[in-house]
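A quick aside before the break. I want you to see a complete sequence-to-structure record at least once, exactly as it would be stored in a machine-readable document. Don't worry about memorizing anything.
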Amino acid sequence: QVQLVESGGGLLQAGDCLRHSCAFTGRSFSIYAMAWWRESPGQDRESVAAISWNGDKTYYADFRKGRFTISRDNGKNAVYLEMTSLKPEDTAVYYCAADLNYYTDPNSVRRRYDYDYWGQGTQVTVSS
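That is the input. The structure line, written in tokens, reads:
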């Protein structure tokens, strides 16, 4: 059974930086594409960033504008999201997700319902 556990949320000021971590437990981390999604109150869950199974491809939402970087360490079964120049509109619950469908359909990383596993989420609150 796969489990994803996020860490790194908190209360921050505009302009701060934050590093999210997601620990993957279970089998075969390296065959999953991994991603970060976020959900703000009253909003649909939206994609933030995704990374291929071996890290050679990354995908970002337009709002990222160079501020966020996704990475992974297959030796540690972990995926990370570095966030810089945080803004109040980045306030959301951030979720880690694992996508096995990427092997046959790389576009699956853009579709919420193609993900196989989700973490419990971690709250990030950015004040102005």
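Two observations worth writing down. The chain has a mean pLDDT of 94. The chain is about 0% helix and 50% strand. We'll return to this after the break.
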